[in-house]
Design brief:
174 residues, mainly alpha
């Protein structure tokens, strides 16, 4: 059992499972009173997802300039893989699942134009997540063809999408 607890992937999976179980228990036990608790977990997941989406391209900036198979390159490979699999992927799953739960249980799909635009931006953000996942695999196989400048520019896209999403959620302009 100790060997399992030393495995970062196992610990991430365990944390994801506990989050799902505790959230499901809150929904079952609290009914409508669970909404603010679910929203709180959703916001925490969004923060973790965004932190990862802002940090991973920054690692790629340094990795793009590192010599393949160098000590720096190998260290960055480990950091990128762990960031993606232990933080970013689980956070995205929780964000989507709880976000959809909140939208449905809050009745936001009917007559909320802002929600549809927000969902479009979140789909685009998920596409950026996919691009970063692909780049992680390319770096892991020493097959990156992009420049550090490309990753510097890509690093700004999640932040811009986040600005739009937050404005839509808070202001609800339409």
């Amino acid at each position: 059992m100790a060997a399992l607890l030393d495995n970062p992937g196992f610990r991430a999976g365990l944390a994801l499972a506990l989050t799902v179980l505790l959230t499901a228990a809150a929904i079952l036990l609290l009914g409508d009173g669970a909404y603010p608790w679910v929203k709180a977990v959703h916001v925490m997941a969004v923060i973790a997802w965004m932190a990862g989406l802002l940090y991973l391209p920054r690692l790629f900036v340094y990795h793009a300039d590192a010599k393949p198979q160098s000590e720096l390159s190998e260290t960055l490979k480990v950091m990128e893989r762990r960031l993606l699999t232990i933080i970013i992927n689980p956070a995205m799953v929780i964000t989507w699942a709880l976000g959809l739960y909140l939208a449905v249980s809050g009745g936001w799909f009917s007559g909320s134009g802002w929600l549809h635009v927000k969902l479009l931006l979140v789909v685009i953000l998920s596409g950026i997540h996919g691009l970063l996942s692909k780049a992680t695999r390319e770096f892991a196989n020493d097959r990156n063809t992009r420049s550090a400048r490309y990753y510097r520019i890509l690093n700004e896209v999640p932040a811009l999408l986040m600005i739009g999403i937050v404005i839509l959620v808070i202001v609800k302009p339409f």
